[in-house]
Amino acid sequence: MAKGRPDFSPTAVDVILRPEWAAQEGTDKQFLAEDVKTYRQLVETIYTVPAGRKLIITDLIGRAFATAAANADLNQIMEITCFTDTTELVIVGGNGGLAVTLSKPLVILAGALFSLRTYCNANHEMNVAALASGYEYVV
After folding, report:
1. Could you give the C-alpha distances from 15 to 20, 121, 124, in angstroms and in order?
2. Which positions ≥6 away from 28 have C-beta within 8 Å?
3. Number of other residues whose CB lies within 10 A of the CB of residue 97
């Protein structure tokens, strides 16, 4: 039985998507905002894109859970927003959590401030967390 590449050649060229390449090269980025909050309180992580670089955000993940067992059966509604300077780029929400691969990645230019925020939108105390992931490259 033949093994190796489909065309049985000893050499080939692989096509690697930029996010996969960034992970391999160590230029991938992850930003986490997490804390215990109550209704409409937010947790924020801020990052300024270095000169000569671009930040691309491709995915958002969030989770929320009640800190008290008595509230565990209630809705665990959370929200994630991403800003650059004062412009809101995306807003997503979920009950207990969410995972979104952005069909159009967020592009944050050099020198701009990137802000990842997550809000507690439940009427009880919750642990809320948001994770934004992507990569950064030299322009």
Report:
1. 10, 42, 48
2. 19, 22, 133, 134, 135
3. 14
Question: Range of 63's domain?
Answer: 31-138
Q: Give this prediction's pTM.
A: 0.85
Q: Is residue 49 part of a domain?
A: yes
CB 127 within 8 A of CB 36: yes
Taking the C-alpha atoms of residue 119 and residue 78, their distance in angstroms, rounded to an integer, is 6
Pairing mode, strands 77-84 and 87-95: antiparallel
CB 117 within 8 A of CB 37: no
Q: List beta partners, residue 47.
A: 114
Record the tokens describing residue 30, joined without a space: 């992850």
Q: Is residue 36 part of a domain?
A: yes
Q: What does the pLDDT look like over 110-136, one tens digit per residue?
A: 999 999 999 999 999 999 999 999 999
Average per-residue pLDDT for the chain:
91
Task: Examine the pLDDT at 62 and tell me if it is beyond 70.
Answer: yes
The answer to the question of residue 5 being in a domain is no
